[in-house]
UniProtKB/TrEMBL annotation:
One Pfam assignment: RlaP
Protein name: Nucleotidyltransferase domain-containing protein
Protein's organism: Paenibacillus albus
InterPro entries in the record: RlaP (IPR018775)
GO molecular-function term, one example from the UniProt record: transferase activity
Keyword annotations of the record: Transferase
Length: 265
């Protein structure tokens, strides 16, 4: 098992900049480490947003807007071109909105990311994000938590998105990434058995337990099925959002190129 320091991850990001001739304007941790429940074998899920030189965008031909590196030694690195990032931002893309508030940033050397965050409330669509998390929770529940024996660690990949749904419905804002914050806030009232079961499971995972196949935890399955049934109808009443103006995003895009490469356009 390879353990990476912050400096080693930044060095890998600098290598991508040199190899691809890009400027990485933002990079962060996006997986279980950012969610607050890494296990001893958790990958480093590094995500980034980058900008290419202005000439690259002045092309008749469509080009690839993603950079990916093969997963090796527990390091999973991939990023989106600024064009892709801003287009998805306009659609209230939850993974991107999560990156912007990651508790583990690696690089942020321009003002562009902060400008994007400033517009995040306008771009955030509660309804579309809630449906995203609900779909994620249902899929993981269907694939991993049926039957008498289940993969215990998969409970986190259903509980986290379903608690995110509750946050969106109650707060009308993007939910925090940290799982413990969602548990403490969204389960402040209710079953002590439910909270105790989740916290015990979280303690085991953080301690390094495999959490592989074990008997299902009925208290969690019952709670999750209740939430699925509730949000089946409740999601329709959650607010949507207006779409950000194209001019504003075009300004951000041009500013990103100018700031990253030190040239006016």
């Amino acid at each position: 098992m390879t353990v990476y320091t912050r400096e080693q991850i930044i060095e890998q990001l600098r290598g991508i900049e040199r190899e691809e001739n890009v400027r990485i304007v933002y990079a962060c941790e996006s997986g279980s480490r950012a969610w607050g429940f890494p296990s001893k074998d958790s990958d480093y899920d590094v995500r980034f947003i980058y900008v290419r030189p202005v000439e690259w965008y002045l092309s008749l031909f469509e080009k690839r807007d993603v950079i990916e590196r093969p997963i090796s030694s527990m390091l999973d690195m991939s990023g989106w071109d600024m064009t892709k990032a801003l287009q998805l931002f306009r659609k209230s893309n939850p993974p991107l909105l999560e990156w912007l508030q990651s508790p583990i940033p690696y690089l942020e050397e321009t003002t562009i990311t902060q400008q994007i965050r400033f517009l995040a409330k306008q771009a955030f669509s509660p309804r579309s994000c809630l449906y995203h998390y609900l779909h994620m929770a249902r899929g993981n529940y269907r694939d991993y938590l049926q039957g008498d024996q289940v993969r215990l660690k998969k409970y986190f990949y259903v509980l986290r998105p379903i608690l995110a749904c509750r946050w969106i419905e109650r707060e009308n804002t993007m939910p925090p990434m940290e799982f413990k914050t969602l548990v403490d806030t969204m389960l402040s009232e209710g079953s002590e058995l439910l909270k105790d079961t989740i916290n015990q499971l979280l303690s085991r995972k953080i301690a390094g337990d495999e959490l592989d196949y074990e008997p299902r935890l009925d208290v969690l399955n019952e709670y999750l099925e209740q939430q699925f049934a509730y949000f089946e109808t409740a999601a329709q009443a959650v607010n949507s959002a207006d779409t950000l103006a194209e001019d504003r995003l075009n300004q951000l895009f041009r500013a990103a190129i100018a700031e990253a490469w030190g040239r006016g356009i």
